Input
Amino acid sequence: MKFTLSWLKDHLDTDASLAAICERLTMIGLEVEAVDDRAVFAPFRIARVLSAEKHPDADKLKVLTVEAGPEINDGKPLRIVCGAPNARAGLVGVLAIPGTYVPGIDTTLSIGRIRGVESHGMMCSERELELSDSHDGIIDLAEDAPVGAKFADYADLADPVIEINLTPNRPDATGVAGIARDLAASGLGTLKTKASERIEGEGDCPVAVRVESATCTGFALRQVAGVANGASPQWMQKRLRAIGLRPINALVDITNYVTFDRGRPLHVFDAAKVAGDLVVRDAKAGEAVLALDGRTYTLADGMCVIADDKGVESIAGIMGGEQSGCDAATTDVLIESALWEPVDIARTGRTLGIITDARYRFERGVDPAFMEPGLDLATRLVLDICGGTPSRRTVVAEATRETRSIPLPFGEVERLTGLTVTPDEQVAILKRLGFGVSSDGAAASVTVPSWRPDVDGKADLVEEIMRLTGVETIEPQPLAAAASVNTRILTVPQIRDRAARRALAARGMVETVNYSFIPENHAMAFGGGTEALKLENPISADMSDMRPSLLPGLIAAASRNAARGYGDTALFEVAAVYASDEPDGQMRVAGGVRRGTAVHSGAGRSWDGNAPAVSVFEAKADAIAALEAAGAPVDRLMIEAPASDWYHPGRSGRIKLGPKVILAEFGEFHPKTLKQIDAAGAFCGFEVFLDAIPEPKRKATRTKPVLTLSPFQPVRRDFAFVVDAGVEALKLVRAAEGADRKLVGEVRVFDVFSGAALGEGKKSVAIEVTLNPADRTLTDEDLEAVSAKIVAQVEKATGGTLRG
Output
């Protein structure tokens, strides 16, 4: 969604800077994607042609003397060579001096010599400034245009363009007025959008409307007779060009303007080209319509259209037809403002591959209450710009709108977001956004406005309050730690994917990531190529089909490496393949290929001779390694030959679990298969079907407690005990550990000594005890106390004594 700053200020009274507006838009959920501050127009100046002489060496060129004010060339006239047919003395136009970037020709000017005459700049046409497609001559401004002034200021081109990224749930922000409403509600100005003037009209509309399709939930139509359909006003053309739309004529430009200004798509018919009455109906299979984009679309059953006695005139909610379009000869116009079911419009647009501004808004849901006001707004613009006399409106099939009322306990905001927002402020925010609010102190009853179909419950209301209060004001809070890890974090498929990757990487293979789209002949070589798996809109001709196997992409990658001198490659991928367009047609597979001499033990030249070429046995070993890592019961596997048709019939096999469950296929590839996909060389490969591996029964295990680390420095103390030679050292360790379970951490034996000095049948066992304080640093008294406990416990358990 694009709009200019001045356009926004038509609806928002604010003194905020461009930077402040963009920051606030992002903060309230209307993310700013780009800002074009129109700086490209800054260097262009208004200049007057003082003289225009014929070029001495070129019949179609003139040498101009141009005055551009005191700031250009110290006020001295510039000499410029120009080929425009309208160049003349006295003309006031737009000058680009050397060093200026001209967007229409994608060139930065420099001083040049043309047919022997030096040229110090360029007089610009509208196309060279990308103002229009006109290139018949240089821009011809009014005689009183201020010479030396910036053209951008004079022509109101210094108007920044803001582009925001809309989420699908915000149809109210598809118009500038809706964006202004959000900014005003956030405190960045005052909303000044005017209500549409009610226009009653004179006489009945001469064209009746009949609605026969459930897709249409409202249709308003009126005729304006005696219009003069010329060019739209400059202010409107500038705004449309700024957002990337090409002005066509006043009637069409008005509908485009209202579409972006209020988020209300409209359509206009040339009344003289409509035969009989209009009927809104479902298309019949095979019907066709020549649309306004110049393309003919063949329609299917169920697509909603607007037709007359001649046939289809418009694809409802998406695009009008060429046959009834308005042009310079239009004198009587029919203005349509309708409502359509969003899902039906989206389905038709996707089927036909049409993306329009109208479809973009109707498939999100336009404001149903603005159907008639939108018709009146467009009528007022037509009357002001084109003149004419309006008829009374015809309104049919308008569905009854239900008013949604949602209870909102005021405490929900803090409970769900952590923000403390007073009840009065919550009510004020919702009212500024257009919600109706009545409060009883503890809760509010909130009425949802017609332009907010996305608000359906109290959580949506809390979100509105949160984004207007500011998500940046939410203080970060650490996640609460659970007492234990209650379940494994990764799912079984995730565990299998990771295990298969590690096992194949350990066998010397390199992981790749390939596109899921492959050429049709590659898909057919590996059992695919069906119509159900073809892409409707592929990004290129060699990415037309969903892959039925990982092997085509891996073989192609190995072939590309071989073409660059790396012939011995071992590649694998763990990803999805597609057997059909049904949900169960997607499978998780671990696949790999080896080429050349890329055997597991090594590749290429060696001191003991060249390595052998890859064979079925490497592929078999890779497949079994991946199966074992993924948890398959390898002790119960069966192998049978051959594998699928793309493998060599005598050098391939299947790995099965029982007679029916196929877990993997492996082998060397059939020469015909390699030829079909334009691959050459020694190849072998495998695919392991991870989804087919049965999940093992889970055993009950005790969960580990949460790891708690002490912030205090551990303390180590050494003890040596004299014990009988038959006493096990482990007995000392266990005794020391049990002296104080909270303080005593690790106990480690670091020395054992026996000798005559200790006495017959005695030995000395020295242990290192690590003490881990939990709540404070240990004092000398603490150390003495715990040491006494350790000595007493060891003496009691072993009968030993502390060595002196």
Q: What stands out?
A: The mean pLDDT is 91. The longest helix spans residues 780-798.
